[in-house]
Amino acid sequence: ALRLAYLHAGGHNPAILDQLLQLQVEATALEKGPLGLCGGRRMAPAVRAEPPSPGAQGLDEALLAVEVENQRLEDELLALKARRERQANAGSRAAQRHMEELAQLQAEVGMLQCHMEQTGPRLSQTILPPPMAPQLLP
After folding, report:
1. What does the CA dihedral 105, 107, 113, 115 come to, rounded to 10 degrees?
2. Where are the annotated coiled coils located (predicted)?
């Protein structure tokens, strides 16, 4: 329940998830063990009508191992999703920087164009055609 609450609240720290997993394993071991805990006190072992079969404890251990492995895989999946999200965020930050640089360059080009319009064209004499003299009348 703690792990689910942590995940639903947006938690994704792998170290905390690992600690929660270890707590879950310990709690399950205590629940399955010969002595349980209740309010901090040890309870007497439950009296069973018939003794457990030799394979039942093995099945409980196998089930616990599968649950632990399943939890580990879920945590690994969550860590991969978090890493993918961080990479996507890093990519969007880079794209944002490029957009800002492009906007700055466009503003500079606009300022240069405005400056050119105000000062007029400054073409060198070598680019301009030679002046033509008016034609003389006969």
Report:
1. -120
2. 56-115
d(CA 74, CA 128): 75
Reduced to 3 states, what is the DSSP secondary structure of residue 65?
A: helix
pLDDT tier for residue 103 given thresholds of 50, 70 and 90: very high
- Structural domain count of the chain: 2
99 lies in a domain?
A: yes
With respect to residue 63, please indicate whether it lies within any of the assigned structural domains: no
Q: Cβ distance 20 to 2 under 8 Å? A: yes
pLDDT in tens, 14-51: 888 888 888 888 887 787 766 544 444 444 444 444 45
Question: For the whole model, what pTM was predicted?
Answer: 0.36
Question: Residue 28's domain spans which residues?
Answer: 1-32
pLDDT digits (tens, 9 = 90+) for 80-90: 998 898 888 88
Can you state the percent helix, strand and coil of the chain, rounding each to 5?
65, 5, 30
C-alpha 56/C-alpha 58 separation (Å) is 5
Cβ distance 75 to 14 under 8 Å? Answer: yes
Domain-embedded: residue 93: yes
In eight-state DSSP terms, residue 50 is: S
